[in-house]
């Protein structure tokens, strides 16, 4: 159940009650594609860096180690030793982005595994079954993720199919949640709005899927090549057509500035690989802009990544030491940068929630965007 606590403009302050605990929103979900955050981050680390939700990938876990294996081991929570909420995406995005050879039919998609080339079929029912085996807290509906530059005719047909698939997802999840051997009988389902950069298609789709009374709604198919301005334009158009009393999730977004802008438009769930991917390359976020720790100017810098930061990296190590680790290709350097970045994002979400609580979100957003882009120096 989603509880809308208050609003500051369009910014929402909410609370999603789940079988694995309460999620305070707005929230950033930390991406652990194959049931682990890349960069040697353990689930015990996630507790320390204020992670609320871990996100894993249906497609990747289906091909390795196999969702049946995870089910035999008690589900994803037991498998990875994590007791807080987990969201699993449906596999749709990966099917449409990784699979070079694929055939889309009404029943689902036929494609080849990117690992061993074996033929796989995935449709709405299969995606729900895999996610039920994983026993995640929140499952995402199986959708087609068309190219943002697809023509109008293709986009309309694709979105209509995604709606039909969503109805099938809902029906299959309701069935799975009644089975005696289902691990999580309280699994939630989020639907996904599609439509590329066509506002009218997006709005019509949002109105249609809102009638299904799902546990939450995502805006998909953005952050795939369109400009930030186009993304904000679509959010301005579509978010008012999604239920206010349900969580709104912007998939795969984004930079700190993207998140701050999207919160201001009524979005309250986010995920993105940026903090972990950037961290693995020595790029770290601070309130004075992003730093590249490979830079020679940090060779003798005895300060932490950010003064006052309470992450494990900043509490214990200097920029100079972390730079040395990165240059020496020691895994610890990568790990410390990832921990810092995820802590930075999770702390920013705390600040966002606090600002909405105190009716000062607009001022906070302006100051924070200036800080993270290095324009407050």
From TrEMBL:
Tell me yes or no: is Transferase among this UniProt entry's keywords.
yes
Q: What class of enzyme is it?
A: transferase
Stated EC number for the protein is: 2.4.2.29
Q: Which reaction does it catalyse?
A: 7-aminomethyl-7-carbaguanine + guanosine(34) in tRNA = 7-aminomethyl-7-carbaguanosine(34) in tRNA + guanine
| Region called RNA binding, residue ranges | 252-258
Which Pfam family is an annotated match for this chain, by its short name? TGT
Q: Which residues form a coiled coil?
A: none
Q: What residues bind Zn(2+), as annotated? A: 309, 311, 314, 340
Q: Which cofactor does it need?
A: Zn(2+)
Tell me which UniProt keywords the record has, alphabetically: Glycosyltransferase, Metal-binding, Queuosine biosynthesis, Transferase, tRNA processing, Zinc
What the entry lists under NCBIfam families is as follows: Q_tRNA_tgt (TIGR00430), tgt_general (TIGR00449)
What PANTHER family does the entry give?
QUEUINE TRNA-RIBOSYLTRANSFERASE
Annotated function: Catalyzes the base-exchange of a guanine (G) residue with the queuine precursor 7-aminomethyl-7-deazaguanine (PreQ1) at position 34 (anticodon wobble position) in tRNAs with GU(N) anticodons (tRNA-Asp, -Asn, -His and -Tyr). Catalysis occurs through a double-displacement mechanism. The nucleophile active site attacks the C1' of nucleotide 34 to detach the guanine base from the RNA, forming a covalent enzyme-RNA intermediate. The proton acceptor active site deprotonates the incoming PreQ1, allowing a nucleophilic attack on the C1' of the ribose to form the product.
Record protein name field: Queuine tRNA-ribosyltransferase
What is the scientific name of the source organism? Dorea longicatena
What gene makes this protein? tgt
């Amino acid at each position: 159940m989603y509880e809308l606590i208050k609003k500051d403009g369009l910014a929402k302050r909410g609370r999603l009650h789940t079988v694995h605990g309460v999620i305070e929103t707005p929230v950033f979900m930390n991406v652990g594609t194959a049931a682990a955050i890349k960069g040697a981050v353990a689930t015990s680390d996630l507790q320390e860096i204020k992670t609320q939700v871990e996100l894993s990938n249906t497609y990747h876990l289906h091909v390795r180690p196999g969702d049946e294996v995870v089910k035999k081991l008690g589900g994803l929570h037991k498998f990875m030793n994590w007791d807080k909420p987990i969201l699993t995406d449906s596999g749709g995005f990966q099917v449409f982005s990784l699979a070079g050879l694929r055939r889309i039919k009404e029943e689902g998609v036929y494609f080849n595994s990117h690992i061993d080339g074996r033929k796989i079929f995935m449709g709405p029912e299969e995606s729900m079954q895999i996610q039920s085996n994983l026993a995640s807290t929140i499952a995402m509906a199986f959708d087609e993720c068309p190219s943002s530059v697809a023509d109008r005719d293709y986009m309309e047909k694709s979105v209509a199919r995604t709606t039909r698939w969503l109805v099938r997802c809902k029906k299959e999840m309701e069935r799975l949640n009644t089975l005696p051997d289902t691990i999580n009988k309280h699994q939630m389902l989020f639907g996904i709005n599609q439509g590329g950069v066509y506002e009218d298609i997006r709005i019509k789709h949002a109105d249609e899927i809102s009638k299904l009374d799902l546990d939450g709604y995502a805006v998909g198919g953005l952050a795939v090549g369109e400009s930030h301005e186009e993304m904000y334009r679509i959010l301005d158009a579509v978010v008012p057509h999604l239920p206010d009393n349900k969580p709104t999730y912007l998939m795969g977004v984004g930079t700190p500035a993207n998140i701050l802008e999207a919160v201001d438009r009524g979005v309250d769930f986010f995920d993105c690989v940026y903090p972990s991917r950037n961290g693995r390359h020595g790029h770290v976020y601070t309130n004075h802009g992003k730093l590249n720790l490979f830079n020679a100017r940090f060779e003798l810098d005895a300060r932490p990544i950010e003064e006052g930061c309470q992450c494990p990296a900043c509490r214990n190590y200097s920029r100079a030491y972390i730079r040395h680790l990165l240059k020496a290709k020691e895994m610890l350097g990568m790990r410390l940068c990832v921990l810092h970045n995820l802590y930075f994002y999770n702390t920013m979400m705390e600040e966002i929630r606090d600002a909405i609580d105190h009716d000062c979100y607009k001022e906070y957003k302006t100051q924070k965007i200036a800080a993270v882009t290095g324009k407050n120096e």
